[in-house]
Write the structure tokens for this entry.
Amino acid sequence: MAFAPTAGRLAKLAAVETRLFLREPITLFFAILLPVSLLLALGGSIPAFRVPDPEFGGQRVVDVQLPGTMVMLSVVTLALSTLPVVLAVYRERGVLRRMSTTPVRPAALLAAQLAVNVVVAVLAAALTLGLGHLVLGVPAPGAPVAFAAVFALGCLALFALGLVLAAVAPGSRAAQGLGAAVVFPLLFLGGVWLPRALMPEVLRRISDFTPTGAFGQGLIDGLGGHPPRPLHLAVLAGWALAAAIAANRLFRWG
């Protein structure tokens, strides 16, 4: 008979996972400090980024393009690099197998891991936008509800994809390799190295159908006060649903 995880058990697991998360300075750096540092360094050192640019609808790069991209970078790092590796390590060490014999089911540990990573993603986004506002004058999201909705849907899509990586990776090293193989092309298509507005039409169209392309553009639209494009919402929902189904079928605890 399966034991449903209670709120108390989940809270205790989440507290443990939070302490373990905070013990990994590399994770904190890449998920939180690196995006914030890039925003402040690039926005503060490149004068052109603080001048209205017609390529971005007359807005400054530091107003929407750069903050939106850095928020996306945080979520991608947590979802596709951190989460799969941690779950692969737990599987290698038999943590999930041992938990299956206790009242605390492995699913509870998975829920706690997801909760911790999502909270970190929210804190990273708040820190990025908050420090961007204080240091560079980055305005608050012009369409806050749209921004929050896209952020939530993007987290669903990317963390579900991260669970797929955790499901197919035979070990932690494989999880790291798979994560890197997926992250770098997705970051490129999401506009990290070449803004989507500057991409050739064909490449931008391809980007529209990727989770990072849809996510990044949706965040930028919300920051700029525009509603998300229906295509991008549909793409994120489609990735979230497909990845969740795949993860559910492929994921193994032992």
